[in-house]
Please model this.
Amino acid sequence: MRRISVFVTTAFLAGLGIGFFARSARTATLERRDTRAADLAAIEKLDRADMEATERQDPSSLTNLWSEDGVNLGFPGPPLVGLKAMQEGYEKFRADHPDFQVLKYASDIKDVQIADGWAIEVGYFEGTYKMSAKDNPVTIQGEGMRVLKRQSDGSWKFALVGLE
Model:
């Protein structure tokens, strides 16, 4: 009888241990799913803010899309690195081209990969703009990749943008 109770007790404790580890693994998997869903929602919010800021062409709104150490390869010349350079670049472009107008801008993100506070977006981008009121509209299309960085508040900002 004593052997049976030792066996039952051991089996019971082993079952508790297995159940605890199985539940922990399941909880961790659910937390990763919840985190991914929250990250994707925050990234979509950044993408919408990018479209709105690009259409408005407000230097401050455009600068606010970037992480502190962001790198923008979209300007002529050397890359713009950091928020100060971004702000100056957007302000200079606006001053040099006061009548510049974005008529349409859209991104079609095909893939988002997220790992350790970083994300990579790959997609197609299309825009139509006019350099001045008298110029004809110009449409550009291309593929691109954007690297995003999760901020301490859970939001996402651009860390590196390179569009074709």
Notes: The chain has one domain: 37-163. Residues 35 and 110 are 20 Å apart (CA to CA).
